[in-house]
Amino acid sequence: MRRLIATMIVLTIAAFAADISGNWKGTAEGPQGALERTFTFKVDGTKLTGETTSQMLGKSTIQDGKIEGDTITFSITANFGGNEMKLNYKGKVTGDTIELTSDIQGQPITWKLKKQ
């Protein structure tokens, strides 16, 4: 019985998860000025995968991605000046926009994404 209830809860959460599959383009103000990044999201239930690309950090694979309702979380491993670092993202989906926050070397960054 508990397994059935757990399955129903997971299916309910998946049914209400936003479908953000596709290409998104984002901008943020960083310590050195404006930053641009593209995201390609793939959603399977509550699992979020894909990749992201920027001129500064290159291409990275989305890891540990989850989508629950209008909240998304994921991480990437990026090469920054020859050093690999893990960046964590958390965001909220509102229609055709996503607002993400991340942290680069102690500096919080807010990304504003638009569906392409």
Q: Could you walk me through the main structural features you see in this protein, from its secondary elements to its overall organization?
A:
The longest helix is centred in the first third of the chain and has 15 residues, at 2-16. The protein has one helix at residues 2-16, and strands at residues 22-30, 33-44, 47-54, 58-61, 63-68, 71-80, 83-94, 97-104, 107-115. Helix content is 13%, strand content 67%. It has a single domain (2-115), classed as Lipocalin (Beta Barrel), CATH 2.40.128. With 116 residues, the chain is mostly beta strands. A hairpin with a 2-residue loop joins strand 5 and strand 6 (71-80). The termini are far apart.
Helix and strand arrangement:
Blueprint: H1 2-16, E1 22-30, E2 33-44, E3 47-54, E4 58-61, E5 63-68, E6 71-80, E7 83-94, E8 97-104, E9 107-115
Output mean pLDDT. Answer: 86
Strand content: over 45%
List unreliable stretches of 5+ residues.
Answer: 10-16
Counted by DSSP, the helix tally is 1
The helicity comes to: 10-25%
Principal-axes geometry comes out as globular
CATH third-tier fold name: Lipocalin
* Head-to-tail CA distance between termini: 44 Å
* CATH class annotation: Mainly Beta
By DSSP, the count of extended strands is 9
Structural class: mainly beta
